[in-house]
Specification:
Layout (H helix, E strand, L loop, with lengths): L1 H4 L3 H12 L3 H7 L12 H11 L1 H10 L8 H8 L10 H11 L4 H4 E4 L5 E2 L3 E8 L4 E7 L3 H19 L10 H14 L3 H14 L11 E2 L12 E5 L3 E3 L8 H5 L6 H29 L1 E3 L7 E4 L4 E3 L5 E3 L2 H15 L3 H11 L8 H13 L11 H14 L7 H19 L5 H18 L3 H31 L12 H34 L3 H28 L5
Parallel strand pairs: 5-10
Antiparallel strand pairs: 1-3, 2-3, 3-4, 4-6, 7-9, 8-11, 9-10
Length: 561
């Protein structure tokens, strides 16, 4: 918060943008108002603020859009459409930077280099070139000075995180740690060698598959001899974005300029084949490899001239460990079965920690969420929306899920959106059913059934050898009375104290009653003054103790104790 209030031109610009966009809470806070009712800006206001603040904050918004585990769906929708409206850097500046990053003269490496960029983003822009051996390449070059801008804005982002950490959102999440996470992600995007290594890994993973033809999926080849932190040189692929103006609709896909019925049938068949290919390629990445392209929006999926599909821009990658993959597979089945109890159990298994969660409430929320799908056919269910709702239920119940869940949900949402737009008649159940069956088979038997059988046999042998000894130890402890049972029952101590209080009062009442009866008997049979004295003393003592008991019960407010 202190760093945000220091005077500087950039900080003043941020304050002006905040005021201009009418974030009432921040406006009141910065002018010394009360922070008794903290709140985040509306999705539209937040989006406008990030756009006005410039490319770095747009990139921050894009990163936030990958975290539906942290933000409600309306924020994710608003931030998902963020695109940096930045002009391309002039060619003379780009040329200087390229020459600085190359190991030799530019003219000896490139036969041709187009000064007009084919794409310009907040961190880099891309140019088409031809190597001296005739191979076409794409050159992704970092914007000059962007590293200094990001370093400056990261400090301001952390200051903003400290300020927003007192909001209702900040009360549930460590926003300072979250700002550190996003800062590291921003800095990582400045190192193009990381994106290059991701692309190589993805290409290796997709080079073999039992679900699809690996030759139909392409990841651009990296030219490592020309690639470094600020320069990425990769294979040029001729094609168009998969949803680009309907690819000139059927003509492009069918490879024909006629509009006959046969062409329409061919196009429909090709669209179905492409959609199936995409689903299977991404299901393998997510559920088999645990290493997946986390940003499959339409601009990163290309339909190539030769009919193959290309995955571009591997800067954002998600990772899932085998345990998480298995839980997510079971979650899909629980959703299909409308099993709220199982969904709740799997959510707690996914949690990063073991928070004290009201399981009954969690199950109730899942039941209410899944109930609206009772009368829908599975082909009508949008699985990405269901996953978003799963994250909403978790967030509302204070269950903190790993960050990879956000990338998982965002990847599914983008993939499903592209698939339904590209082929509106697609039935997702038909695509998922054979894959789920194979997934469970692989989880049960592994890739090598014989190896899995041998490993299981060794485990059974080990268990059979250890069991008699463990049973002997158990019986020995039981017979020697050295076994201790540690039982913890919630809310038992208050019940025990309440029973103790009730028993004590009952015993006390019996004693008081006995004293009164004793005093009365002595008084009735007293023949001398000597007996009247102890009788009156007992009666007085009993009366005092009885009165004290009545007063204590009245003061406790529990007349029924």
């Amino acid at each position: 918060m202190l760093s945000l209030t220091k005077t500087s031109s950039r900080q003043r610009e941020i304050l002006e943008v905040v005021f201009r966009n009418g974030w009432d809470y921040m406006r009141g806070l910065l002018t010394g108002g009360k922070a008794s009712k903290p709140q985040l800006p509306s999705p539209e206001v937040l989006r406008n603020i990030l756009i006005e603040l410039g490319p770095v904050y747009v990139k921050l918004g894009q990163l936030l859009s990958t975290r539906p585990d942290l933000l409600p769906g309306r924020y994710i929708d608003a931030l998902s459409t963020l695109q940096a409206q930045v002009p391309a850097v002039a060619w003379p500046e780009i040329e200087v930077l390229i020459r600085q990053q190359l190991n030799g003269p530019l003219e000896e490496i490139f036969a041709e280099l187009n000064p007009q960029p084919v794409a310009a983003g907040s961190i880099a822009q891309t140019h088409k070139a031809t190597l001296t051996d005739g191979r076409k390449v794409a050159i992704k070059v970092q914007r000059p000075g962007i590293d200094l801008v990001i370093a400056q804005d990261i400090a301001l982002i952390k200051g903003l995180a400290e300020l927003v950490s007192i909001s209702d959102f900040g009360s549930d999440f460590d926003l300072v740690a979250l700002a550190d996470e996003f800062s590291k992600a921003l800095l990582a995007e400045l190192d193009f060698t990381q994106e290059a290594s991701f692309a190589d890994q993805l290409r290796r993973n997709l080079s073999t598959s039992r679900w699809f033809d690996p030759k139909q999926v392409v990841v651009p080849q990296i030219y490592w001899n020309l690639t470094n932190k600020k320069l990425l040189v990769m294979e040029w692929l001729d094609g168009v974005p998969i949803l680009s103006s309907s690819l000139s609709a059927s003509q492009y896909l069918a490879g024909s300029r006629t509009n006959g019925t046969a062409d329409a049938a061919v196009v429909a068949e090709q669209r179905r084949a492409v959609t199936t290919l995409l689903f299977r390629a991404f299901f393998q990445q997510i559920y088999i490899d645990g290493f997946f392209h986390a940003d499959p929006h339409p601009g990163n999926l290309f339909y190539l001239d030769d009919g193959r599909v290309a995955l571009l821009d591997c800067g954002m990658i998600g990772r899932l460990d085998p345990r998480t993959q298995q839980i997510l597979t079971e979650m899909l089945l629980a959703i299909v079965d409308i099993d709220s109890q199982r969904c709740a159990q799997l959510t707690l298994q996914l949690a990063e920690s073991s928070p004290r969660v009201n399981l009954a409430r969690l199950e109730s929320d899942y039941d209410r969420m899944l109930r609206k799908y009772y009368n829908l056919s599975l082909s009508e269910i949008k699985f990405s929306e269901v996953i978003y709702e799963v994250l909403d239920v978790s967030r509302n119940n204070k269950v903190i899920l790993p960050g990879s869940m956000g990338l998982y949900a965002k990847a599914l949402a983008n993939l499903e959106g592209v698939a339904r737009t590209f082929d509106p008649e697609i039935n997702l159940l038909d695509q998922i059913k054979p894959l789920i069956t194979d997934l469970f088979r692989r989880q049960l038997l592994g890739d090598d059934p014989l190896q899995t059988l041998l490993r299981t046999a060794l485990d059974v042998k080990s268990l059979s050898l250890q069991s008699p000894r463990q049973l002997e130890l158990l019986l020995d402890r039981m017979t020697s009375e050295t076994m201790h049972w540690n039982l913890t029952l919630r809310d038992l101590d208050p019940l025990r104290r309440s029973l103790d209080d009730s028993a004590n009062r009952l015993s006390f009442s019996i004693v008081v009653g006995s004293l009164i009866m004793g005093a009365a008997i002595i008084s009735a049979k007293a023949q001398t003054a000597q007996l009247l004295v102890p009788s009156n003393a007992l009666f007085a003592a009993a009366s005092f103790l009885g009165l004290w008991l009545i007063v204590s019960i009245l003061r406790s407010g529990r007349l029924r104790s």
